[in-house]
Predict the structure.
Amino acid sequence: MKWLELLKEIAPHVTRAGILYDLEQPTSPAYLKTIEATAPSFKVQILPDAVRDAGTIERAIATLASGTNSGLLVLPGALMTRHRDLIISLAARHRLPSISAFRYYVAGGGLASYGVDNLDLYRRAAGYVDRVLKGEMPANLPVQFADKFELVINVKTAKTLGLEVPVSLLARTDEVIE
């Protein structure tokens, strides 16, 4: 799983990774299964924590931070997006390196993200809308999958956490936020 790989590359000391996820998010079980399957190869203990509101997010992060060598993975979902400022501030307060799926998480002060380029998806969707408005049948349009992913790193946050992002990783980064 790319998020776990990224966490270990930026913060090699991490041996425990908390995973914040929403049980109501349909994609969460598949993400968890994949992360749990790859965790042994990174020598990381996975600590999944289903959250449902700001209070459970605060408790989950505080519990994770009470241990040593911890990092945080924030799975995609509306709940996480709604509480991203809280998650970012708690990760900073507890000095937890954290990875998310979306660029806006890093722009708001999070450490790093790896995920689909949402602007690219919106542009492509607009093309589909245009084709439908010109008379094409939606059922005849091909299914498209995201094929453009972006890696974003906030080096200011990394420095605040006492982490040095490897130059080899920065060279692969689509956007560096300073």
